[in-house]
Write a structure and sequence with these properties.
With 492 residues, this protein is mainly alpha-helical. 68% of the residues lie in helices and 0% in strands.
C-alpha cells in the first residue's frame, strides 16, 4: 500500500464518527450476528462496515453500500464504506476512493448529514461495539445532539435514541442493579418515556407507534421499572396523549400494539421480536395470578405469541425460544403439582428445607418451572409432550447461547429420563465459553448436577471454582448464591 493509499485509508478509518474505529484488541469477528439481528441495519451501512472490517465478501459489501445509497444518497457512512471498498478492491481503485472522500467532505459541511452520521455512529457504538466506554460515549452524543430537537424532531434520530435507552434501562434497572442509585435509574426511565412521547406526538407512522409501545412494554416488564415510573415524571406530558401514568403498564402497551396490528394487517415491523415481548407480558401476568383457569388461559395466549418466531422462519434464540420454553415449563408445573403434590413438595424441601416457605400454589409452580432439583422421570404422556416441546425450544436457544438456561435444560432432560452421561454432555467446557460470567454460571449448574447425582466431592469442587470468578461488582449474581447454598447443603 503506497503513501497516498495509506493516507486515504487513514481518513476513512479515523474520521471522528467512523464505524471502522474499534477499541484496541477488539475482536471484529464477533459482531456479525449482532449486526444481522439489528433491524435498523436494513439501510446497509452497518452490514457493509461489518463485512469490510472482517475482510469478507466484497460483492456483499457492494450490494449493502448500493442499498444504503439508494435509500439515502447523502449518507456519510455509505460514502465512507464505498471508499474503503475501493481501497480493498484488487487492485485498489484510488481515484474512485478519492472521489468518495471528497463527497464525504462535502456532506460533512452539511449540518443535517453530519448530525445523522454522528447519531448512527453513536448507535453503532452502543449496540455493536458495546464496551463500557463506547456506551458512555454514545449516551453523551445522543443527549448533546438531541437536547433541543424536540420541537422539530428528526424522527429516525429519536427512534434510535429510544432503542438505545430501552437497552440502557434494562442494563441499569432490571434485577435491581446494585451499582445504580434509584435517582439515576429513574432518570434513565424518564429519558426513555420522553423520547417515546416525542415519537408519539410527531409521527402517525404505525411502524414507529409499534416501536414506541414495544419499547415501553419491554421496559415495564421489570417491577423495579414499573415502580420507578410512578414518581418524578411529568404527568402533564402524558395527559396530552390521554394516558395517566398510573394506567401505563406492560399490558396496556401490548393492547396498543395489538390495536395497531389489527388496523394495519400488512405491517411487518419486527413481528417476531414484538411477539416475543407480547408473550413475556402475558407470561408475567400469568405468574401473578393464583386462579388456575385464568393462569392457563394467559399461558396459552403467551405461547401463541411466543412461537410466532417459528412461523417467521426466524430461529434466532433472541426470538421466542426462551420465552416459549418458560411458558411450556409453567404449563407442565401446573399439571405436575396437581397430579403429584407430594413429589412437588419433596423437591421443594430438598432445595429450601423449610416446607413452611411454600405459601401458595404459585410458589410451587414457580419453583418447578425454574429451579434445579432432582425428580423422578415423568411418564405421563400429556406432561411429557409439554417437556418434549420445551426441550426443542431450549435446543434452539442453546445453539448460540451455550450457557443460558442450563439448569432448565438439564431438568427437562432429567424429567424425560435421558441417561446421565448424555445429560452431562450438555455442559460446555470452560474453553468454549467467552466470559467469566458464563463460566461461573456453567460451573454453578454443573455443581448442582453433581450434587443431585450424589457426587458431592465433585460438586464442592465446582462450587469452589465458581467463587474464583467473584468480584466486588458481580457478588450479588445468582450463580454465587447457588454455589453458596449448594456448599451449605453438602456441608450439613
Amino acid at each position: 500500500m503506497n503513501q497516498d493509499t495509506m493516507s486515504l485509508d487513514d481518513y476513512f478509518r479515523n474520521w471522528k464518527s467512523s464505524l471502522f474505529k474499534t477499541p484496541p484488541g477488539f475482536d471484529v469477528m464477533h459482531i456479525r450476528r449482532t449486526v444481522l439481528e439489528e433491524k435498523y441495519s436494513a439501510h446497509g451501512n452497518y452490514r457493509a462496515a461489518t463485512v469490510l472490517l472482517q475482510n469478507g465478501d466484497l460483492d456483499e459489501a457492494w450490494n449493502c453500500i448500493s442499498d444504503a445509497l439508494e435509500i439515502d444518497p447523502n449518507s456519510v457512512h455509505a460514502w465512507c464504506n464505498k471508499g474503503v471498498y475501493y481501497l480493498k478492491s484488487s487492485p485498489p481503485q484510488e481515484s474512485e476512493a478519492r472521489e468518495a472522500r471528497e463527497r464525504m467532505k462535502e456532506l460533512l459541511q452539511q449540518d443535517e448529514a453530519k448530525k445523522t452520521a454522528t447519531i448512527e455512529y453513536a448507535y453503532w457504538q452502543y449496540n455493536i461495539i458495546r464496551t463500557a466506554e463506547a456506551k458512555e460515549e454514545a449516551l453523551k452524543l445522543f443527549k448533546r445532539l438531541l437536547f433541543n430537537e424536540s420541537t422539530e424532531p428528526v424522527i429516525k434520530h429519536h427512534y434510535l435514541y429510544m432503542k438505545v435507552l430501552t437497552k440502557h434501562a434494562k442494563r441499569s434497572i432490571w434485577n435491581g442493579n446494585a451499582n445504580m442509585t434509584t435517582e439515576f435509574q429513574r432518570s434513565v426511565l424518564r429519558n426513555l418515556f420522553e423520547e417515546a412521547l416525542v415519537l408519539l406526538q410527531h409521527t402517525n407512522s404505525p411502524d414507529y407507534e409499534v416501536a414506541v409501545w414495544h419499547s415501553l412494554a419491554f421496559a415495564l416488564l421489570d417491577k423495579n421499572s414499573f415502580e420507578l415510573v410512578r414518581e418524578g415524571f411529568d404527568e402533564v406530558k402524558f395527559l396530552k396523549q390521554k394516558y395517566k401514568l398510573h394506567t401505563i403498564d406492560s399490558m396496556l402497551c401490548v393492547k396498543k400494539i395489538l390495536e395497531i396490528y389489527e388496523q394495519n394487517p400488512s405491517l411487518m415491523i419486527s413481528r417476531a421480536e414484538v411477539s416475543n415481548t407480547i408473550a413475556k407480558v402475558y407470561l408475567e401476568k400469568a405468574r401473578e395470578t393464583e386462579n388456575s383457569t385464568e393462569r392457563r388461559r394467559l399461558l396459552r395466549t403467551a405461547l401463541k405469541y411466543g412461537e410466532k418466531y417459528l412461523e417467521a422462519g426466524n430461529k434466532s434464540p433472541c426470538f421466542g425460544s426462551q420465552v416459549s420454553s418458560d411458558i411450556l415449563m409453567q404449563m407442565w408445573a401446573m399439571k405436575y403439582r396437581r397430579a403429584e403434590p407430594e413429589k412437588a413438595r419433596s423437591a421443594y424441601r430438598e432445595v429450601f428445607g423449610d416446607q413452611d416457605r411454600i405459601q401458595s400454589k404459585s410458589t410451587l409452580w414457580q419453583f418447578l418451572s425454574y429451579e434445579f432439583y432432582s425428580v423422578e422421570v415423568d411418564n405421563d404422556p400429556g406432561r411429557r409432550a409439554l417437556l418434549e416441546k420445551a426441550e426443542l425450544h431450549l435446543e434452539n436457544y442453546k445453539k448460540e447461547k451455550k450457557c443460558k438456561f442450563l439448569s432448565k435444560f438439564v431438568t427437562v432432560k432429567l424429567l424425560l429420563g435421558y441417561p446421565t452421561e448424555e445429560i452431562e454432555a450438555v455442559f460446555p467446557s470452560l474453553d468454549e465459553l467467552e466470559t467469566n460470567e458464563e463460566r461461573a454460571a456453567m460451573l454453578a449448574n454443573y455443581g448442582r448436577f453433581c450434587e443431585i447425582n450424589n457426587r458431592h466431592q465433585e460438586a464442592l469442587q465446582k462450587y469452589q471454582q465458581v467463587s474464583s470468578y467473584e468480584t466486588k461488582a458481580n457478588r450479588r449474581c445468582w450463580y454465587f448464591e447457588m454455589a453458596d447454598e449448594g456448599t451449605r447443603r453438602i456441608s450439613t
